[in-house]
Amino acid sequence: MAEQSVPDIVIGRLPRYLQALERMRLEGITTTSSLELGQRLGISAAQIRKDLSHFGEFGKQGTGYSVEFLIEQLRAILNLNRMWDLALVGVGDLGSALARYQGFTNRGFRIVLAFDNDPQKIGKRIGHLVIEDSATIPERIRQTGVKIAMLTVPAAEAQKVTDCLVEAGIRAILNYAPIHLVVPPGIIVENIDPILKLQHMTYYLD
Amino acid sequence: MAEQSVPDIVIGRLPRYLQALERMRLEGITTTSSLELGQRLGISAAQIRKDLSHFGEFGKQGTGYSVEFLIEQLRAILNLNRMWDLALVGVGDLGSALARYQGFTNRGFRIVLAFDNDPQKIGKRIGHLVIEDSATIPERIRQTGVKIAMLTVPAAEAQKVTDCLVEAGIRAILNYAPIHLVVPPGIIVENIDPILKLQHMTYYLD
């Protein structure tokens, strides 16, 4: 397999393909083409074919792709043939919204731990979780073997909490704090910052 | 100016440069280099110099960049020398968290309208806003001239609401619904979906 050398930007598009295919399946569509998939995503058919070609042959020339088969293949490539446990760190407004969000489980994720350092919050329930003391992060992450954290703490605390998470064995962090986190090699960070997206769009407005 | 032809991927990095520079300013740093900036962002110095070169000369060889000057230039390029009004559509858990978030104003944005179609919510206060009936979107968007919307409605409603927003004059949409929105040419959409980011990271986990 050539998977080792697939550019990260290609990997980043695969979840979007999967999302569109799962929607097609919901709509009862069983066969699709790179053209149809591309139109749904605003991506060229050639780009989609090129991206998928990194991983093998998924369709026959002229007959298109089986939606179900392509979903299965993409889920396997992205390691989604299992449920991934998440730790939520920081249960403010945003953390609370994430804890209550119903859309994780049917896409392969479930929050199993929630931490905050506010004594008023520790021990309280949020959705199906009980908020635990951030001081217990090292112990609880090691006990549970959770590998992915969602970080929704204030920017000023984010790096310190990150160091603690990495030390405890977390390997991937979805960072909502508006700062760039410094992590050791091999630790993956993805950032979500609505303001960066807004500032990107205002370039085109006047 | 060569601005017309700057690739969108370059534009997308400028807000990150701005964010890092604003943090440097907070830390009292007055001069920086593409190397230092790059280290903070995990981006090569060469990439930063190349990106900035699209817009002119911002530093002298060997003396680096004035942090303040570069902030001013980036803010001007991104049209951030003004406050941008936002409309929030959908005041569920996530919409509520965004309405209460304090971090918008000092980065150039303020939410001035909030809409929901739930009769239980219409008329209620959220932060400094009063939730208005989604049925009044066309009228209220036209009255206020708001150009940017944050869309936090369920996926099943997102396209219909988008059509309504675009018809009313919205030109840019930050979409939190986990679907690809179809919009006319010239309307800008950026998507925020934590699960796409999580699925990107699980590729690298095992």
TrEMBL record, chains A, B:
InterPro entries: CoA-bd, NAD(P)-bd_dom_sf, Rex_actinobacterial-type, Rex_DNA-bd_C_dom, Tscrpt_rep_Rex, WH-like_DNA-bd_sf, WH_DNA-bd_sf. Keywords: Cytoplasm, DNA-binding, NAD, Repressor, Transcription, Transcription regulation. NAD(+) binds at G90, V91, G92, D93, L94, G95. Residues 16-55 bind DNA. Modulates transcription in response to changes in cellular NADH/NAD(+) redox state. It holds the Pfam family CoA_binding. It comes from Thermanaerothrix solaris. Belongs to the transcriptional regulatory Rex family. Homodimer. The keyword Protease does not apply. It is found in: Cytoplasm. Residues 79-180 form the CoA-binding domain. This is Redox-sensing transcriptional repressor Rex.
